[in-house]
Amino acid sequence: METAHFSIPASDPLATILESLTEGVMTVDPDFRITAFNRAAEKLSNVQRGEAFKHDCASVMRTSVCESNCPLRETIRTGEPVVGRQAYMFNADGKRVPVSLSTALLQDRDGTVIGGVETVRDLSLEE
């Protein structure tokens, strides 16, 4: 099944805001397939947007908590956000990058869970 990509028209101020952030932002559907991926997420993961949309988030973001303590899975399961969970991300070049992960639930107007959003902050300068 093809994943629907979350698309904000370039003229929408929200698109400008998401693209101007230094933190990586990605959204996923309930099956954890990537539906949105900003420029900072591309830079951190070293994975191009077009490639990211073809995969689930764990295979693109490749953090040390994806398999065992995934903050997005926790948020979608409990409905509670995760703020500032520290982990390591292994980018497409194999470089280990310390990151801080925060998540929130995505719901439609009726309150139905449609996925989650994760922000990824590079902590390498702070370390």
Would you spell out the secondary-structure blueprint of this structure?
Blueprint: H1 13-20, E1 24-28, E2 34-37, H2 39-45, H3 49-52, H4 57-61, H5 71-78, E3 82-90, E4 96-107, E5 113-122
Antiparallel strand pairs: 1-2, 1-5, 3-4, 4-5
Would you mind describing this structure in some detail?
The protein has 127 residues and is α+β, with helices and mostly antiparallel strands. Helix content is 25%, strand content 31%. The chain contains five helices and five strands. It has helices at residues 13-20, 39-45, 49-52, 57-61, 71-78; strands spanning 24-28, 34-37, 82-90, 96-107, 113-122. Strand 1 and strand 2 (34-37) form a beta hairpin. It is globular, with a radius of gyration of 14 Å.
Number of helices: 5
Classify the helix fraction into a percent range.
25-40%
Low-pLDDT sequence parts? none
Distance between the termini: 41 Å
Total beta strands: 5
Calculate Rg over CA atoms: 14 Å
